Amino acid sequence: LAIENGLRRALDRNEFVVYYQPKVNINTGKIIGMEALVRWEVPERGLIPPGDFIPLAEDTGLIVPIGEWVLRTACAQNKAWQDAGYPPLRVAVNLSARQFQLQNLVEVVSRVLEETGLEPCWLELEITESVAMQNAEYTVKMLYELKDMGIQLAIDDFGTGYSSLNYLKRFPISKLKIDKSFVREIGTDQDNEAIASTVIVLGQSLKLGVVAEGVETEEQYDFLKQHQCDEMQGYLFGKPVPPEKFEEMIRRES
Ligand code: G
Ligand code: G
Ligand code: MN
Ligand code: NA
């Protein structure tokens, strides 16, 4: 309960921070975008990782205002970096189940884009495979509405839920993100290697880009490059970092 009350007040008290983790083109090694990942900094307690409060935020519905704040902050930050003259990057924001089910999601997203001035093509929304497949007819409809705004869409944690390939093919998405549980075992587990390479082939045949998350070793990177994965994200290239640190990374590159 203490954590729930704290969570309720955290937005007003400005305790959330958005960290950014680079996404890299596997062939060029260049940063092409970043994932926005929220952090909660409680005074006198320190950083609470999202795994410890996102589920509670989801249960209480607080994820809706928190998620909208993350979306607005990430879009505003991305626009500020573009205005500062850095090469344009695409920012990816996670949508929770509750957010995805919101009746006014399209209005919320278009209002945020309007208010921040970010062009829709520089925003990507990630929804997990399990959320996408939960009510797949609704997902098809909602994803079309978002796509029609000019936003990019990605399926997150791919391979961990139950996918109907029939639906997957009908979703107007541009990317699949291979879950890190498969990537982690590249080099040690042949079954997970097979899953990773099969997801890449699946993505290619559906004309989707494939992103590998959780890339930590050169061996995993080489494997993914050999199998023509498009993008990667992981500690090998960079951990999620606060905005000042991320800006240093893009400054060094440009
Ligand atoms: O950021 P990691 O660094 O620990 O994130 C842990 C989990 O929390 C991930 O599954 C991630 O998708 C989720 N997460 C992080 N930030 C957000 C957010 O802004 N919104 C939602 N819905 N989930 C998030
Ligand atoms: O939204 P999603 O579940 O994809 O969130 C990404 C999660 O993966 C975040 O918790 C992020 O901190 C974590 N992450 C990103 N790169 C790595 C990595 O290389 N190794 C591990 N173990 N976790 C990572
Ligand atoms: Mn994600
Ligand atoms: Na994921």
Automatic annotation (TrEMBL):
It comes from the Bacteria. Residues 1-254 form the EAL domain. May play the central regulatory role in sporulation. It may be an element of the effector pathway responsible for the activation of sporulation genes in response to nutritional stress. Spo0A may act in concert with spo0H (a sigma factor) to control the expression of some genes that are critical to the sporulation process. This is Stage 0 sporulation protein A homolog. It comes from Pelotomaculum isophthalicicum JI.
